[in-house]
Amino acid sequence: MSAAIPAPRTFLIGAALPHRPCTLVVCRGCCCGDPRKLPDTDHARQLERLRTGAAEHGFAVRTTDCLGPCDQANVIVVQPSAAGRRAGGRPTWIGFAMDDDCTEEVLEWAAAGGPGIAAPPATLELQFIDPPREGRVRSRR
Q1: Collapsing DSSP states into helix, strand and coil, what is residue 14?
Q2: Per-residue pLDDT for 17 more than 80?
């Protein structure tokens, strides 16, 4: 007697979705978004501007706890869309993202397609940072 073996379930999540948009991951942990550390930045207005721009242009914004490079706050990670990843785009970490110009440049880049699709504004490239070492080690496991 042979038992029928059910077919494995296949479903796509997160980054594997074929039409996943570019995503901005905004750090709001211990230092980023903290007016005690960065009192001259309107953190709530920055996050609202990012969310409004994302809604206008069809990409996503999410917040997360501490990403690690606290000495380079505020940190935003621009994750490529599915098409951007297929084109070779990789997550891009942006540090010192505190002023309106930087916020607008991040929005402009994400609206144009983000990593792998569009070139970042030249002035934004000056704010690119390396992800923390612990994150790179963890991601290889």
Answers
A1: helix
A2: no
User: Which of 3-7, 8-12, 74-78 ranks highest by mean pLDDT?
Assistant: 74-78
d(CA 89, CA 125): 15
105 Rama class: left (phi>0) / alpha (psi -120 to 50) / beta: alpha
Q: Report the distance separating Cα 20 and Cα 113, nearest Å.
A: 11
Could you tell me the CA-to-CA distances from 126 to 20, 93, 96, 97 in Å, in that order? 27, 11, 10, 11
Tokens (6 digits) for 57: 């242009």
Nearest Cα residue to 109 out of 123, 99, 95 = 123
User: Rounded CA gap, 101 and 67, in Å?
Assistant: 22
